[in-house]
Amino acid sequence: MKPYATRQDLIDRYGEDEILQRESMLPAQAVEDALRDAAATVDDYLRASYAVPLVRVPPTVVRLTCDIGRYLLLGESVTEEARDRYRDAIAQLRDIAAGRMQLDAGLLPDGAARGEVVVESVAPVFKRHRRGGLP
Fold this sequence. Notes:
Blueprint: H1 7-14, H2 16-25, H3 30-46, H4 59-74, H5 80-97
Helix pairs in contact: 1-2, 3-4, 4-5
């Protein structure tokens, strides 16, 4: 599975100094763990309308994943700006889950989001004929 956001995405958005500083104080996998947890949070909201994990990841999802991942990564050192971005990301995910906003990521077929089984088929190639010959 391709991650929704990478370490480089975090650096591009928040600067290398911030990410390197956090990495120096945390276990080696801290950035990847935070981004994985952030992606799981994103999936929890999106699964109501989208097949997750997303195959095509729109820029909005990268941004939301970065904002949530940064918040998780900062932990007790979270800044007001990072907290605001996290809250905004969660609010946007709620809007997506409620259908007030859509992503360009491939919606589920009607009914699938409610746990219903959706069957799609093509037209039959052969038809049955009446007994006694061709119609």
